[in-house]
Design goal:
Blueprint: H1 13-19, H2 25-31, H3 42-54, H4 60-73, H5 80-94, H6 100-115
Length: 117
């Protein structure tokens, strides 16, 4: 069964900024003394993908097709878990499931909490 994807391949400024900051888990984990190769957020990412699929909002074949296209064209060179996360967010933004302004506010709030630690 072939799924035609036609992902929105435009670059999204917010995601480009995240992608270029060198925050990949394989870079951060050793600095924090963590040896687990999987980022702590990977389980949540998988669960979100499943929820989106089961609800019919973003079926798995559509998500994977978009992820493959985005990985090849937009997010090549990004490590796998981060690439999957960026591709999912990119697809959600492109489909209007999340607004870029809302996402930027949430990212800012999380950064503020982390800096306060």
């Amino acid at each position: 069964m072939s799924v035609e994807c036609n992902a929105d391949l435009r670059r999204i400024a917010l995601l480009e900024a995240i992608r270029s900051k060198g925050k990949a888990w394989d870079v951060i984990a050793p600095r924090c003394g963590v040896t687990n190769p999987d980022p702590p957020w990977k389980t949540s990412l998988i669960a979100m993908c499943e929820c989106l699929s089961v609800s019919g909002v973003l079926p798995t074949p559509d998500r994977r097709g978009a992820e493959d296209e985005l990985a090849e064209v937009v997010y090549s060179g990004v490590p796998a878990p981060e690439r999957q996360l960026l591709a999912l967010v990119h697809t959600m933004l492109s489909r209007g499931l999340v607004m870029e302004e809302d996402l930027a506010c949430r990212i800012s709030a999380v950064r503020s909490r982390l800096r306060a630690l």
